[in-house]
Amino acid sequence: MRDSWRLSGIAVAFLVLLRMAIGWQFLYEGLWKLNTFSSAKPWTSAGYLRSARGPLRNAYRGMTGDPDDLRWLDYDEVTAGLDAYRNQFLAHNPDLSEDQQKQLDTMLEGPSQFSARLDHLPAGLKIEGNLKKVISFDPESKRLNVDGKMHLLPKERFDLEKQARALKNASAADVDRFIKALDQVFKLSAHLSYKERLAVLLKIDPERVGLVYRDDKTKEVVEERKGKITEYKELLSRYNEQLPRARQTFEIKHLDTQWDEIQKLRAELVTPVKVLETDFHQDARKLLTVEQLARGPVPEPWTAQQRIDHLTIWALIGLGCLLIAGFFSRTAALGGAALLLSFYLAVPPWPGVEDLESAGPEHSFLVNKNLIEVIALLAIVSMPTGRWLGLDQLISALAFRRRKSPPNN
Question: Which among 59, 11, 84 is positioned nearest to 380, based on CA atoms?
Fold first, then answer.
């Protein structure tokens, strides 16, 4: 019986070759993913984890930290991120001048007011009503000022220009100077700070945020139109509710179509916010001198997604090297099996879990390539392939020689 279980030389060779082949696959895959970080499109497991299915779907999606990018649609959270970057930027560049710090704050928060030079108002011109909250003239500093948080609307500018041109007692030169200053301050006030631009995206834009119509007297809501942000959240909630039922009734194809629509809407809503944050980082760096730029970019804490990406890459590289070298080969094979099993369980080819017809060129049922490699690695765990050919053989020989060597007298 024991003789029937003995392995032939060719079986040993193929088992060693299998171990090294899987190791090479791990190593090359890890190095390829690592190399993409120096390209314009670095690799990330975000899409794979977000699309996870099966009983562990929520656990895999949770690894990304924010699988549905809801943080990017929350004004308070995004502004907190902008404030945190500003503080890190100041800490990373402690030698910023007062002017640089002021420009940074103005870029993020906006100025307290917009001003244009004006010696005096045209005779008879009065700024009254709600306009007084927006625009004012300071005779001491001889400046025409617009409140930095209010801004001057095109209609308000038009009304002031029309009023100035209708003045009968004012000289034409004074009117022209006022209109010129008004144009200057209007152009300045048209520039929005980063937080104001963010507010437009997440709090003001009716297409994204929606509209609420209220009765002028009672202030009760008369009509409410949903924006795309609300639509996205509702679609996402409905999808999560329908997913367990779809598994039981095998209606995955309908849900896949719905998921594609959700992802398109997510990209449409989230991308402008991410671009805005990136633009702020780039504009902040433009304030630096050559000497300050030499310090490099501001170190930012890794996100949960970045941690899981790098952990995956270095696990592939490390396990690949160990399997090729035959060093701790059984431990490495067990680790590789666990890693591939996690890939398998993310989207398992089980009935009611994966749409087999749209799975691509590979058609699997219960068993796919990942599971086959898991079984192969577990076979390697059960045999000393590293001692047949690998560093485990050298370590074993050294340990055996040390045990057999006579003790020193």
Answer: 11
CA distance 119 to 128: 20
What does the block give as tokens for 123?
């005779």
Could you tell me where the DSSP H helices lie in 222-368?
Answer: 228-249, 252-285, 290-293, 304-325, 329-346
Tell me the β-bridge partners of 212.
224
Closest Cα partner for 377 from 327, 325, 321, 339? 339
Residue 247 neighbours by CB under 8 Å, 6+ apart: 352, 353
Cα(118)–Cα(139) distance, integer angstroms: 9
How many residues in total does the chain contain? 409
CA angle 23, 29, 31 (to 5 degrees): 100
**pTM recorded for the entire structure:** 0.75
* Burial zone of 290 (CB within 10 Å; 0-12 exposed, 13-18 middle, 19+ buried): exposed
Phi first, then psi: what are they for 116, rounded to 5°?
-140, 145
- Average pLDDT on 138-152 reads 90
- The answer to whether the beta carbons of residues 145 and 138 sit under 8 Å apart is yes
pLDDT digits (tens, 9 = 90+) for 233-289: 999 998 888 877 765 555 566 777 888 899 999 999 999 999 999 999 999 999 999
Confidence band for 33, pLDDT divided at 50, 70 and 90? very high
Q: Cα–Cα distance between 337 and 382 in angstroms, integer?
A: 12
Distance CA 178, CA 123 (A): 11
Exposure string (b/e) for 34-45, b if CB count within 10 Å is 16 or more? beeeeeeeebbb
Chain position carrying tokens 């590289």: 317
Do 376 and 21 meet the contact criterion of CB atoms below 8 Å apart?
Answer: no
Burial of 341 (0-12, 13-18, 19+ CB in 10 A): middle
